[in-house]
Every structure is written in C-alpha cells, then in structure tokens.
Amino acid sequence: MAKARTLDKRRKAIRNIHKITRTMELISRANFSRAMARAVSATAYTKRITALVGHLARSGLNVTHPLMQPHEPVRSGVLLVLTSNRGLCGGYNAAVFRLAASRWNAMVEEMPGPCLEVVGKRGISAFRFRGVQPRQSFTHFNDKPAFAEVEVLANRYQEEYLAGRLDRLEIAYTRFESLSRQVAVVETLLPLGALVSEEVGGNDANHGASPAAYEFFPSPEAILEEVVPTSFKIKLFKCFLDAAVSEQIARMTAMKAATENAEAMIEALTMTYNRARQGQITSEMLEVLGGAEALNE
Fold this sequence. Notes:
Elements: H1 4-57, E1 76-82, H2 92-110, E2 113-119, H3 121-129, E3 136-138, H4 147-163, E4 168-178, E5 181-190, H5 192-207, H6 220-296
Parallel strand pairs: 1-2, 1-4, 2-3
Antiparallel strand pairs: 4-5
Helix pairs in contact: 1-5, 1-6, 4-6
C-alpha cells in the first residue's frame, strides 16, 4: 500500500485540478447562456429571410439573382471549416475535422481548383499536421463572433462568386439543434439557390402553405438585389453562432465530466489515505508497545 504522505500529495493535486475544471465549467455555462441567446435570436430571422427569398423566387415572376444561379462546370470551390481556438471541449473539434477532411479529399478529386480556409487554431493545427496548408486561416473569431467580422468574409465570397472566381462555397461546422443535440455538418452556401430550396421546402411541408402573393415596389429585381445578399450574410453569421454555442456546450459537458471524475478520485483516495494512515498509526503503536515491553524485561 502506498504511503499516506504520497496519497495526500496526490489528493491535493487532484483537488487543484478539481478547482480548475469546476471553474471552467462555470465559465462555460455563463458563456453558453450568452451564446445560446444570440443563436436562438438569429435562428428565427435566418429562417424567415431565407424563406422570403425562396417565396420571391417562386412567386411566378421571372426574377433571379446571380448568387442563386449555379456555376457549371464547377472548377473552383472553397471549403470553410469552423473550429475552436482552445481545446478541452471533448470531441467538438474532432467531429468537425473528420467531416471536413473527408469533404476536402472529395473536393480535391471533384474540381481542379479547391481552396481550404480554416477558422480556429485547432483546425489549423490539425490540417497542417496532415500536410494540408489552408489558403487562409483565421484566429480572431472567438466565442463571441461579431456580425461585422463575418460580413467581411461574406462580402469577399460574394465578390468572388459574382466575378466567376468562385463556383461553390461549402462550410463545415457544428450545427446547433438543441441543448442535447449538436451535429457536425457540411452545407453549401453558394449558390444560394440550393439552400433556399431546402429551407423553403421544409417550411412549406411543415405549414402546408404555398408561397404568398407579393406586391413589389419599386420592382422585384430591386427587392431581390437587397434581400439575397443579406440572406447569405445572415446565414453565414448563423453558422458562426451555431459553432460558438456548440463549442460552449461541448466544453461545459467535458468540464462537468472531468469535475465529477475528480470528485470520485478524491473520494477513493481519501478512503485509501485513511486506511494507510490507520495502518501507519497501528504500526507505530505496536512499535511503542514492543519497546515498552522490552524495557520491562
């Protein structure tokens, strides 16, 4: 059996770890509350504006927008991967990276000019470790992504798509569905038509309604010219918000499990320490009694 002093040192070390994991759990819980509020508030707006674009496109009028038109053939594409800057969040980064790596390999075979862009230090390190150098990497998107920061990316993607330098934009991230379910997915953001059809199809199926009739002022083209780019920016921003809240949920869950494991280890070490200390005291008492008997003889 290990000495009582060694067990006590180990118990103190685990107690220190327990304090750290408990603190990180509380911080993640607070960050999650804020990220959750932002993600939920953006969800309704994103779905509504996406459905609006789809209804306008299907209203019977011959109106289109360049961002909704697919480019054939697809020669160049961008895969944007959203990961975290920090670890200690369970399998959050691993799930996104596995899906992104598989999609990247497929894009390399499908098109002659694919480009990889990665957000987050963990994703950058993972791809570089496997010999893949991203065209651009970003580390300034923390757990509170700002719309102005995401809008810079969105404007660049729009300009490249309209100029014909970009034929497809895909994003790999963790989609937030509920507190108990977050799924790593790869979605196509450009052309916007595929995403709009998916969203509108789901909404119409759920509500059993056909697109409403609209009266346009000044014209349908002017309305789409304003709404479609906004819809793309909002959808991209929603992906960043989903990734942020999913990261906090993963970290909160991981730190809670680590805290509970530390508590169990402390309890087990305390019992072992008490037994070792009791055995040590008994041994010392026997030595004292033995010495006293030797003096009496």
